[in-house]
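For reference, the entry.
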Amino acid sequence: MKSGLLLAGLALLAAPAHAQLTSAERLMKATVEAEQQRTLGLLERMVNQNSGSQNPEGVEKVAEIVRGELEPLGFAVRWIPLRETGRAGHLVASRVGRAGTKKLLLIGHLDTVFEPDSPFQRWVREGDKGHGPGAADDKGGVAVMIAALRAMQAAGTLRNSNVTVFLTGDEEDPGTPQSLARRDLIAAGKAADVALDFEGLAQEDGRDMGSIARRSVNDWQLTIKANSAHSSGVFSAASGYGANYELARLVDAFRREVAEPSLTFNVGLIAGGTTARLGPGGIRAEVTGKTNIIAGEAVARGDLRALSQEQIDRAKARMQVLVAKPLAGVVSATLTFEDGYPPMAPTAGNRALLDRLNGINRDLGLPAMAALDPLKRGAGDISFVAADVDGLVGLGPSSSGDHTDQERVDIPSMSRQATRAAILMSRLGRERR
């Protein structure tokens, strides 16, 4: 009773400064601020439990922490085990609200890039920063999501909202086959009207930015077989140029002739010599060769990132055309692709969601958020539902040093983001489908 009176009092105090907010929205803002220490306590517990993508038991333990937060809010929580993909699985929580209103899909992830053998394992508070593995990516985002849902519960707006929370256990290192690892997320996207991604808030020059697009990730591999002979005959019609020259020629041709706006082409591994063999997972190579022998084998691996499927298709087609015209002495040149994360194109529906968020920024007295250049953001799970539902990325906190032992979450941004999310979800959730 006392905490309810305190929150009501805080909401009344906030009213003159934010006249465009409803009383429920003022209460949501006050709830987020009053519960900041609780939210940080939850984040600390999650960070201190290792949940590297390849640590299924750890991922499941973080899922249980989250379950304990969502079930008291009226969510029906289920665990989708996916050990057959080499990963733990996914947590899905649903809450049924008023019939005929928009269905919201909230996306985040339980895993981090830090496995149990990493020395980076614990949460440390450093003033307005929280230092720890996954403090931002994405345990900070999960903490913001829960803070927003708790605020909605306190204000009574969660009761009528149709919300599904989908937290993957393998966003940082997806399980295989991908068709199974993302089957349930794709199905959830098809059933939703809006998707909100709680990965980190992007900033430029200290300004919060909105994200309405994410690029794809497609891996490629180029394998060259060529005549191997004495180096004295290199460049001759009989011996040709060898595998290394052909590989170098093609990789540079890709750079010069495939690139276009919003598309990047990376070469992550190159190996070539008399023999060149890739190791398990394609992340290491064993090479033999001598300076006086024309290279007989070469291989390169990399990724391709694009903003639309049409752009991916154009790039693949152009690369294959280049590969089909080999140098003399090349026996075979084979280019293969492996699909990863699909693109999330900057659609009109996504832009409209950012406009809605900027309406909330105006009502909160915060600056408008411009759309982030998608070149400045990596791929993410929301891309798997982007073809079926409008979405917005970056509702988690701002941070620095993600994916390194310098990862730090900006604590003040957590309350700002939770307030934005709570109001956005409440406004969207009462709209008709």
